[in-house]
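Entry:
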Amino acid sequence: MFTAAVSFVFEIVLDLLTGAFLLRCILQLARAPFQNPISQLVVAVTNFAVRPARRIIPALGRLDTSSLLLALLTQLLLQCGLLWLHDVAISATGASVYAAIFGLAALSLVKITLYILLYVIIAQVLLSWINPYTPVAPVLESLTYPILRPLRRIVPTLGGVDLSPLVACIGIEVLVLFVITPLTGKLLHLL
């Protein structure tokens, strides 16, 4: 019971931190404006680790490699911590276990990134109905534009309603259910 509670809290905290690192990377990649409440919060939460990491790890063009690497390290720490909490001796195992841990961390990054995009799309749709002129609208638009623009060319509007966010949300869920989840299950069997 105690192990389950500690695992839950450990996983929540590190997944949120990973999400913050990934969101910072995505914001920079999408060239989102940083003069808004969301971007300022993400920067404030992640600066403790990103600023020192940037001294060592250079950016690759627009890709914030330090934030991406910190997200990966956070997930590696999470995977190792969860195995340790469940009494799996990592040091006594073979190379396949290390590959599985790295694969689980990488799949978690992809899954968290997809869920960030899903929540941003949902937030943008809701805010477009409630208050389209909110200060966070430009950020949400810059984050969803690369995903929704190609879909808007393919998916027709029905009665003036843009269905591309719905198609994107369904596509993200299909990726998680039919690609990420089975791959995660296969990697967990290696442990």
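The helical segments are 2-29, 37-56, 65-85, 95-130, 137-154, 164-189.
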